[in-house]
Design goal:
The protein is built from 16 helices and 19 strands. The protein has 506 residues and is of the alpha/beta class.
Length: 506
């Protein structure tokens, strides 16, 4: 019996340590953690009471005194570690060291969470805790948004709550704010951020897309379509509607932004008059005009300080070939200081088949002009592109960097300001290039829409789906790796150990 009681202190210490580790990992004071901690503490107290006389006698030994000093130092170190761990729970700070910041919120998500003006409640209906990835994501939002609240509800234990919020199945995530509600089946940063936009926006803003001149098809799913751009705008709670200016003669009064994407044929004069009247009232216009087209906008644009050049911007840097898009898609890394391009530093955008833009220092209609983006210095504006080959002609072509996008604004009165964003390309926002070869093309388009619509909290680098970093191996490579890890390396260590033992023996 005494031999059995001798192991009680060790068992108590092991139980106490196991309970602490379990609580630290799960961050949950569960019944299992309580049993281990309280049980271990009870065993230690019992062993202390049972061996009290032996402990008193041993205190007079020299070895015990030395051991007590070492034990005291150990207790102090243990106390420091416990204090550090406690402070880390109270004031946690995470560092994301991944190359693409996989475990950090995007700029847009942070800005949106920080700017919440009303409480947002996110409820996950699941039995037990949701996956660790979901909890980590919610903690990121809660850390930057004081009005962001996250709770977990078991639909079996609280069916009334599930019925009230319209839960359809276990695993649903319901996001509510005021009377608005959004239901998510999967919790990704993009879906949560889009849901936050929908439940916090007071009313939807409308983007009218001019049609009738060969513009990009908003519902087209092919590479040259604009269905991705439309889907992304709608995800941010914009209503996207077609507009036939030839019939309406004017822009509807509820328009937040008017988009003209890639017109191939000239706009009629009544249509241009309608656009001019819209701008004169403080309207917002986004123009994407491709090269080798004549939409008849010269007289409309020149008084506003911008002119479309009759050329194609070519890039001799060779970087476009790395992405399979060739020299006719100039690389852009030079962004001027503007809210649309804020955060684009050290990132790339591409503009397949773009034309350059000439800007004036002043305009006849009182507009202020600012260059938005420029091509790189190893580009030029080719004016005679024939047979798929071209070379720089100093007498005809313009040497880069060249303007590819510009912004022009005019103050109408204290409350209204006319804004126009002009791109010498529409391909960059098509389905083929919206998120490839870099997602920044899509960010640039959406930032332009948000800036025109005065949605400053949406203007940022948006969340994107993480790229796959998996390694694909053949069966032979898998078997080779298995043999190296399971047989060769342990076998080599065993042989080396036997050799050392044999040498020492002899």
């Amino acid at each position: 019996m005494s031999r059995f009681l001798r192991y009680i202190p060790a068992a108590g210490a092991i139980l106490l340590l196991a309970g602490y580790i379990y609580y630290s990992i799960r961050s949950e004071w569960s019944i299992a953690a309580q049993v281990m901690v309280y049980g271990g503490g009870a065993l230690l107290l019992f062993s202390l009471f049972w061996q009290w006389e032996a402990i008193q006698k041993s205190l007079h030994r020299r070895s015990v005194r030395y051991g007590s000093a070492a034990g005291l130092v150990l207790l102090v170190l243990l106390g420091i570690l416990v204090l550090i761990n406690f402070l880390s729970f109270k004031h946690s700070k995470r560092f994301d060291l991944t190359e693409t910041q996989l475990f950090s919120l995007s700029d847009q998500s942070r800005k949106l969470a920080q700017s919440l003006k009303q409480d947002v409640y996110v409820t996950a209906f699941t039995k037990g805790n949701p996956p660790q990835s979901v909890r980590d994501l919610m903690e990121e939002y809660r850390a930057v948004g004081k009005r962001f609240h996250f709770t977990v509800v078991d639909p079996d234990e609280n069916p009334g709550k599930a019925r009230e919020l319209g839960v359809q199945k276990r695993g649903d995530i319901i996001i509510t704010s005021g009377s608005k509600k959004e239901r998510l089946e999967t919790a990704t940063e993009e879906s949560i951020t889009n849901a936050l936009i929908k439940v916090t926006r007071e009313k939807n803003k409308i983007v009218y897309c001019v049609t009738g001149h060969g513009e990009r098809d908003l519902n087209g799913n092919g590479g040259d379509g604009f269905s991705t751009a439309k889907q992304k705008m709608e995800a941010q709670n914009y209503e996207v509607k077609p507009l036939v200016l030839a019939e309406e003669k004017k822009v509807p009064a509820d328009a937040s932004v008017v988009l003209i994407a890639g017109p191939k044929f000239p706009l009629l004069q009544p249509e241009l008059d309608g656009l001019q009247g819209y701008l004169d009232q403080g309207g917002r216009l986004l123009l994407l005009v491709d090269p080798e087209t004549n939409p008849g906008l010269d007289d409309f644009l020149k008084p506003k300080g911008v002119t479309l050049d009759n050329d194609v911007v070519l890039d001799a840097s060779g970087i476009g070939q790395m992405f399979g898009i060739g020299p006719a898609a100039p690389l852009v890394t030079n962004y001027e200081g503007h809210p649309i391009t804020q955060g684009f530093e050290n990132t790339m955008t591409f503009f397949p088949l773009a034309r350059s833009i000439t800007t004036a220092s002043s305009s006849d209609q009182g507009y202020s002009v600012q260059v938005l983006i420029k091509s790189n210095p190893r580009s030029w504006g080719e004016t005679e592109l024939k047979g798929g080959s071209a070379k720089f002609d100093p007498g005809k072509d313009k040497q880069g960097p060249l303007n590819i996008a510009a912004v022009t604004t005019k103050r109408i009165d204290d409350k209204r300001q006319a804004k126009m964003v002009l791109f010498g390309d529409s391909d960059f926002a098509t389905n083929a290039y919206f998120q490839r070869p870099t997602p920044r093309n899509g960010d640039l388009f959406l930032n332009s829409v948000s800036w025109l619509a005065e949605d400053t909290e949406l203007m940022a680098i948006r969340p994107h789906t993480p790229q796959s970093r998996s390694v694909n191996m053949s069966i032979a490579q898998t078997n080779l790796l298995r043999y190296l890890a399971v047989i060769f390396m342990p076998g080599a260590a065993l042989i080396a150990g036997v050799a050392v033992w044999w040498n020492r023996r002899n």
